[in-house]
Amino acid sequence: QTERAFPVQVTKQRQAQGRPANRSGLLFFIRLKTADCFDFLKNKDKRKAADLQNFKRSKRMEGLARLCQGARRVVDVGCDHAQLCALLTTEGGAEHAYASDIRPGPLENARRTIRTLGLEHKITPVLCDGLDSFGPGDGDTIVIAGMGGDEISAILSRASWVRSPEIRLIL
Prior knowledge:
Low-confidence stretches: 1-11, 22-38
Oligomer: single chain
Mean pLDDT: 78
Helix content: 25-40%
Order of helices and strands: EHEHHHEHEHEEHE
Distance between the termini: 57 Å
Structural class: alpha/beta
């Protein structure tokens, strides 16, 4: 087992002393065995499983997931953290989900959740207003939860394709 040294910048000591933290010569080395690095990479799937296990679930999300039972392709409008999409694609049997939001901040939270859980191939984040970026065939189940009735009505009125009998609406 070969040992390799990785430089690490010491900043906290200098900051505590009121001095700039980015001065050269403040490097020290941590010795890591190469085998330890490979073990870390090898256990990636176990870490993902642990992330899924620790994934925060609310009764509301579990209730919405039950209503989506049998969904294959889901569009979650106003996804916030993409928690419902993650739950449906990992345990609910959904093949794919779209996590959409009108604001970049919540969509970035969704992207973070998707990356953390390793679900990039199953969940697509979409920045859009309601269902404006979607059309027939994108989803068999549309979830619009946590919004007021007027907002939901406005979203649905702009997407006439959701009136199809093959599409299930969870409102």
